[in-house]
Amino acid sequence: MTDERIEKNKAGGLFVMKCGGSTLAALPDSFFEDLKELQSSGVKPVIVHGGGPAISGNLAKLGIESRFVNGLRVTTEEVLDVVEMTLAGSINKAIVRRIQGSGGQAIGLSGVDGNLIMAKPVANSDEVGQVGEVTGVKAEIIKGILDLGYIPVIAPIGVDAAGQRYNINADTAAGAVASFVESPKMIVVTDVPGIMRTVEGQKIVLPSVTVAEIEELIESGEIYGGMIPKVRAAMDCIQGSVSEVVIVDGKEPKVLSRVLQGESLGTSIISS
Ligand SMILES: Nc1ncnc2c1ncn2[C@@H]1O[C@H](COP(=O)(O)OP(=O)(O)O)[C@@H](O)[C@H]1O
Ligand SMILES: CC(=O)N[C@@H](CCC(=O)OP(=O)(O)O)C(=O)O
Hints:
Blueprint: H1 4-12, E1 14-19, H2 29-40, E2 44-49, H3 52-61, E3 68-69, E4 72-73, H4 77-101, E5 106-110, E6 117-121, H5 125-128, E7 132-137, H6 139-147, E8 151-155, E9 157-159, E10 165-167, H7 170-180, E11 185-190, E12 196-199, E13 202-205, E14 208-210, H8 211-219, H9 227-237, E15 244-249, H10 255-260, E16 267-270
Parallel strand pairs: 1-2, 1-11, 2-8, 5-8, 11-15, 14-16
Antiparallel strand pairs: 3-4, 6-7, 9-10, 12-13, 15-16
The structure holds adenosine-5'-diphosphate (ADP) and ligand 2.
Ligand 2 is lined by residues 20-22, 50-52, 55, 72-73, 83, 131, 156, 167, 169-170, 226.
């Protein structure tokens, strides 16, 4: 990590990474070893994670059906108990244990702790229930944990001043965290090699896309399902301090350090 370009990133201070539930179990040990090496070299990673498939699995065990409206889980109080238990409990602690297992240092918390992620109901809460949108993130808590030498591992549960909990899509939460901590880059780690489109019958990965191109890809149906909240979160945060969002496959060797070194991997979303 003596590369000049990594040094430049260090000067930026930190980067936010979102780990999707689709990929968490498949992340190889080398992913966490790379993360540990970055941490040892002075880079400050912040992790926001999902866990949608695990939530659906736990709900199914309880005989509760999972329902989604435009990619957002319909969240009753009963569902919210399972969401919190899964995200802030088993998934969060599994990530912390994997980082520690690679010799890194991590502290897991949810957006409820210290009122880290403040939220309010989404506009269509009559349809989706206790789903939140972010109104604020206490960046000083994240920076404090980083200054202590730990990687913050954040579960996307929000809270409001009255103490009500909210289920927040993990891509949305990661984008908001990246904006509030003024991360220059957000890395979205998922189970596909980037944003793909079909050209002459072949699926290709787009090396970079602009906000205008994303709108066209959603319109044409080439971006659908779980990719939609990712690109929407990316578009929201690159309006502010985040200058680039990169979507990559977590199984790619040394993916984090390669992206931070400026290697062209996955799909880079840029403002224009
Ligand atoms: N244009 C696209 N390129 C790549 N993947 C896409 C695209 N449109 C939709 N997807 C889907 O988005 C999925 C990633 O979203 P999701 O399953 O929610 O992942 P995560 O758990 O990482 O948030 C991919 O596995 C793929 O099925
Ligand atoms: C409101 C909403 O839909 N919340 C998500 C939170 C987890 C998530 O987003 O996980 P992935 O990143 O693995 O999809 C859910 O309940 O599934």
